Amino acid sequence: MLDNLLLGFSTIATLPVVAAIFAGVLIGILCGVLPGLSASTTVALMVPFTFGMDPVVAVALLVSVYMAGEYGGSITAIAIGTPGTPAAAATMLDGYELTKQGKPGLALTTSVVASSIGGIIGALVLFAFSEPLARFALSFGAPEYFALAVFGLTIIASLSSDNLLKGFLIMFLGLFLKTIGLDGFTGEERYTFGVPKLMDGLSFIPALIGLFAMASVFYGVEEDLRRSERVSLSFAMPRLKKLLSMWKVYLHASVLGSIIGVLPGAGATITSFICYNEVRRFAKNKDEFGKGALEGVAAPEAGNNAVVGGSMVPLLTLGIPGSATTAVLLGALMLHNIQPGPLLFQTNGEIVYGVFAALLVACFAQLFFGLIGVPLWIRVISAPRPLLLSVIAVISVVGSYGYNNSIVDVWVMFGFGLLGYILRKLDFPITPIILALVLGGILEENFRRALIVSNGDYTIFVSQPISAILLVMAALSLMSPYILNRLSRAGTNV
Q: Of 124, 173, 96, 92, nearest to 435 (Cα)?
């Protein structure tokens, strides 16, 4: 195990990789500060800049952006009561209360310390459990991968618990869009409408850029933009004794966040609220939560950054993205000819362990920049919104065109941008369509391959132990919204 960790650090021990990590942390924090730019959007915007980069440098940059982006959203959540990212909504509950009490410095310092500790623990979980899970996944065949894809899609139930019908409608739309292109078994064209560029299907990266970045531009142009008041920050830091006294909070939330992160579909937003509720449940000062408790800042921040390492486990070992951000990372890895899955540890072990090491270094870089750069992060918020939207639009167009040097990809990006805008206006979740685009190919390919092997016998999906268990887990996943609702009600009554 120690040899693998040393391999990871030796892989990133070059000036370009270290520079990419530090640049990724800065970019992640800056974009996280801006309301509306989630970690998913930021990573999607950065993918075009990795074209032509060495794979190790590109991956180090993107995972650093992912890590820091989850933290950056807490800055605006604390300073102006507007979460920069959805995951920072739980941080806002106590963080903004501290700001209104004239103590923003206490909240901001606690936030970056907790986020960094959570990220470190999440990276250690990734390092400890990835390889054993990868060895287990080597036993997977077509039925198992089909069942795994089904399980991944049923996670939409937990992501769309407010409206399951909307979630599944969007999922089926994504599955339909995934069928565009040549049939992998017969070679027949499907819904290409005579456009040669569509024979390879809809390009994943332009679709992601459209759904997140361009949709945000469309929405930002339409909405009534209000200038936020500048907040005068106090640079007072919590006493070291106070920071150390919250070690149980860091540990509790980080371990919980790592575990939830391993489960595909949970995500940082759900995790941050779960960690907040669980820490409050066991806290002695329950009444202070929601009124400016530092523990209420530390818990969600430690949890949502621990998710980063945990969510990389199913991505690297199984090739299954557990969140929108890891779906973007999956596309980026494939772009650099890196195929996540159990064989990755054998074919590109240095990249895998390089990811582990990069996450650890990114955590310390995040702690450094987070402590010294607070005034700068706040000033970014005052950037003219039209300028910001224009920059995002230009990057989206250039990045989409540069993906395949094709104007068709630009139109695909605009099409998905319009789709993302419409879905947002109608309050439809976007994550289901991303999961469908990623898992649709795996689902169809392994379903047809399994039936070919079994001569059309559908019982092959339940006769194999692993596939049967995964299908049972998929069924349970569909019931998860009801289970979570019961748990949340129970927690409210405590």
A: 173
